[in-house]
Amino acid sequence: MAAAAPLAGVEPKTLEKKPIKFSNLLHYQGLIPWAWIEASTKGAVLLFVASEAEYYAKSFGASDFVGGISGGMAGGVAQAYATMGFCTCMKTVEITKHKIAAKGVKPPSTFTTFMDIYRKEGIRGINKGVNAVAIRQTTNWGSRFGLSRLAEQGIRRVTGKDEGQKLSGWEKVLASGLGGGLSAWNQPIEVIRVEMQSKKDDPNRPKKMTVGNTARYIYGSNGLKGLYRGVTPRIGLGVWQTICMVALGDM
Question: Torsion-angle region of residue 74: left (phi > 0), alpha (psi -120 to 50) or beta?
Answer without folding.
Answer: alpha
